[in-house]
């Protein structure tokens, strides 16, 4: 049964009575209050510690609550993730948690789920806001403020770097909301500062080995670099390997700045090879399922639910190491 039929029926009725209809958006699908839900979780990939920690948190919370979790891994493919959402729709899950690989193709998948009467909650990445919006196409976005993450890195650098900053920026996956926003936040923070100069920006696709390879290439073209800003820990760790292979001392000859806050990068900060890290907390399970319960109960859900994120510095890294994921 198509749970969105009432909205469609109303639109048709208005058209038949001669009332002009201007692209009336369907209201969000309802979710019945139940003890046990069959819920989809469409993960984007599982090739790094952050994603693994996020998946574990979702699986652990579903198990604790007794829900059936239909889990898929898109293995880094937006097309595969769209197919995964199609499969969940076919299985008639009650709701879908989606961590979008890319903004545009997954916006269409969100709208398809809504048309099928299945509410969608976005986790940690958003979709193109020109194509799909919270409150009409999906319930809400739960995650970090990616622009603020990038801004915090830029502000820390401006405050702590002595002399000229010659920066290489390792970008996340092209077309993803964290890559877009972490770049914007950082570049906005250093804009207009004469002693801050980005030498090169290139995607490392949020991957350690690709981050290393890209850093090796950019380092050859820009040997005077003295700051690396990586959009996640994996690329930062790859960059550290490239710097050391080139005979440079990360954390000293070249500042290393990152976002995510996994235990490995925090330990590298303790060891002096990293200078600053903004946390992006991957433990979504409790908040995700609490939001699902609130939505079923008819509570008002905000368009964005922002996770609180810490920062790691040389002053606090040792004391916070055990609490990093």
Automatic annotation (TrEMBL):
GO terms for cellular component: cell envelope. Residues 1-25 form the signal peptide. It comes from the Bacteria. Transmembrane segments: none annotated. GO terms for molecular function: carbohydrate binding. It is found in: Cell envelope. Gene3D superfamilies: 3.40.50.2300. Its main location: other. Keywords: Signal. Residues 39-299 form the Periplasmic binding protein domain. Belongs to the bacterial solute-binding protein 2 family. PANTHER family: D-ALLOSE-BINDING PERIPLASMIC PROTEIN-RELATED (PTHR46847), GALACTOFURANOSE-BINDING PROTEIN YTFQ (PTHR46847:SF3). This is Ribose transport system substrate-binding protein. It comes from Deinococcus humi. The lineage of its organism: Bacteria, Thermotogati, Deinococcota, Deinococci, Deinococcales.
């Amino acid at each position: 049964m198509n749970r969105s039929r009432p909205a469609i029926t109303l639109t048709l009725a208005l058209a038949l009575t001669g009332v002009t209809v201007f692209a009336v958006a369907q209201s969000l699908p309802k979710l019945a209050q139940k003890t046990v839900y069959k819920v989809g979780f469409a993960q984007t990939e599982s090739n790094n510690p952050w994603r693994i920690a996020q998946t574990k948190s979702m699986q652990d919370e579903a198990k604790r609550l007794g829900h059936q979790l239909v889990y898929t891994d898109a293995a880094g493919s937006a097309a595969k993730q769209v197919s995964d959402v199609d499969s969940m729709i076919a299985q008639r899950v009650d709701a879908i948690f989606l961590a979008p690989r890319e903004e545009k193709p997954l916006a269409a998948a969100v709208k398809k789920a809504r048309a099928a009467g299945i509410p969608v909650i976005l986790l940690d990445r958003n979709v193109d806001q020109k194509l799909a919006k919270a409150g009409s196409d999906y319930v809400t976005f739960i995650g970090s403020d990616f622009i603020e993450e990038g801004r915090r890195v830029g502000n820390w650098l401006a405050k702590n770097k002595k002399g000229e900053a010659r920066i290489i920026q390792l970008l996340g996956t092209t077309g993803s909301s964290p890559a877009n926003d972490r770049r914007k936040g950082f570049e906005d923070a250093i804009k207009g500062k004469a002693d801050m100069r980005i030498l090169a920006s290139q995607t490392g696709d949020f991957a350690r080995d690709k981050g290393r390879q890209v850093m090796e290439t950019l380092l050859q073209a820009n040997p005077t670099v003295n700051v690396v800003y990586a959009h996640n820990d994996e690329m930062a760790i790859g960059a550290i390997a490239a710097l050391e292979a080139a005979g440079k001392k990360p954390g000293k000859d070249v500042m290393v700045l990152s976002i995510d806050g996994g235990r490995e990068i925090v330990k590298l900060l303790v060891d002096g090879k990293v200078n600053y890290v903004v946390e992006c907390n991957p433990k979504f399970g409790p908040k995700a399922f609490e939001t699902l319960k609130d939505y079923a109960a008819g509570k008002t859900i905000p368009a964005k639910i922002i996770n609180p994120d810490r920062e790691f510095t040389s002053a606090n890294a040792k004391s916070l190491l055990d609490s990093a994921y």
